């Protein structure tokens, strides 16, 4: 994935602010109103103390002040609660949208987006990483807005009655954010390091769980336990480093604010002692002094929320940024998003320009590759100038050695990557990013090892067509020759399946996946030798079902076995990313030495 610059992360966090809508502004407005009432609260309290102690007023004389003070207390409590709740709502809106876009990016980018990534790191980003944004938007941003407004409002009231106290407050106030920024530079680096270590630990735990069988078979459990202990200890040390800086900054912050308040109190005390100041105004200024520093102290407290958000957002920028920086990945088309990437804007322009070009997938489907080229790395082409026409209902087998370009060709058809030159046409219509959703609805995909999700058998079959009814689902299961087995299960179609089909044999997993394909009833079938790695009985059942499913459909299969290519109408022979020949099995066997060598070497084996 692309390298993230230091400037990109704050820019990303700032770009999400509009997603909070008016809730963030409302939170700041309520907080400001509470701050203004705080001044009225101090005035009322100073009036009560001055009247009772120095003017010898009775309780009845100050009852109105007491009532006003109580009303201010209650109103401020309500305003603070409302401010906090609206800030949380704002943060939840941002989290929801960012998580949605991350999911969409992963779905649109497809498997190739994950080639260089560890699943555990991405899971950590999608869950804990997005959650780490909450304090930034719900705490830090509102405080940053109030840190200038409330102290400034207090100074407006203090200066006319006590310019000396106001001057002390004004001079000492900038010291707090100055030292926080100085400390924050080191904290940002430590937080990024901490999040990387957390992502590494999450990824390693997931790798260990997924590879537990291998670890046990190779007696590597103890060695792996030591590795996990080391990774966990590294994360602990990193966390302690962050906490150490956090406690240090809090200590410094409290020290500065305490010393500043003490300076105001001492000077007011001396002036009262020498009769240079009225008690009411001195006490009023003294009551406001701690409240003057409170927003600044809150900024210091929540400043680490910013550092945490920066650490967590680094991976998000990396994932979402690929849609701009890596043109090889399939574009993300999300015109409803509040924050569009450069590529999305370009895609929107392309969509408007080709609004009249709708993908026609009614009836049979033809596919044309016109001069298609693609490379994963500069100077190492995976496909070079591929031109091929696949007729409606034609059965095509793709063969070639390792690295010939078979998987790349399939990924292009699935829309996981886009051609760097040339074009793909579906029924004589150029396949474009805005067509991918409609195009994938027309495809049934059967890999060598199908994936079943944790859930019921019913849920896994319904992936093929989630709006299908029960009879259609049962008919699909019957066509895939898996219905008898499902009926024998304790809860039939409601029986739960473990992650990746745990508890089922390879043949049963493939037949449930085949039932999905029958239920989808798509006009195009893409196969990657789904009978590989199966026992003879399972292979025979799946081949029978596939033969029935292939009728009146366009079928493109990556072939690894001889009986697969023999059933194809045409065979495409790939070598080093180029089409070496196209023809029937008999023609290629007679004319192509490479194909003949492959057949003779792997009779009934892997081609």
From TrEMBL:
Q: Where is this chain compositionally biased, Polar residues type?
A: 335-360
Transmembrane regions listed in the UniProt entry: 23-43, 63-83, 140-161, 167-187, 245-273, 279-296
What topology does the record note for this protein and the membrane?
Multi-pass membrane protein
Predominant place of localization: membrane
Q: Which GO terms describe its cellular component?
A: plasma membrane
- Gene3D superfamilies, alphabetically? ABC transporter type 1, transmembrane domain, P-loop containing nucleotide triphosphate hydrolases
What keywords appear on the UniProt entry? ATP-binding, Cell membrane, Membrane, Nucleotide-binding, Transmembrane, Transmembrane helix, Transport
Write down the CDD domains for this protein, in alphabetical order: ABC_6TM_AarD_CydD
Where does the record place it?
Answer: Cell membrane
Ranges for domain ABC transporter come to: 367-601
**Which Gene Ontology MF annotations are present?**
ABC-type transporter activity; ATP binding; ATP hydrolysis activity
Task: Provide one Gene Ontology biological process annotation.
Answer: cysteine transport
- Segments of this protein annotated with the region Disordered: 331-360
Tell me which residues make up the ABC transmembrane type-1 domain. 26-308
What is this protein called in UniProt?
Thiol reductant ABC exporter subunit CydD
Q: Which organism is it from?
A: Leucothrix arctica
Q: What is the lineage of its organism?
A: Bacteria, Pseudomonadati, Pseudomonadota, Gammaproteobacteria, Thiotrichales
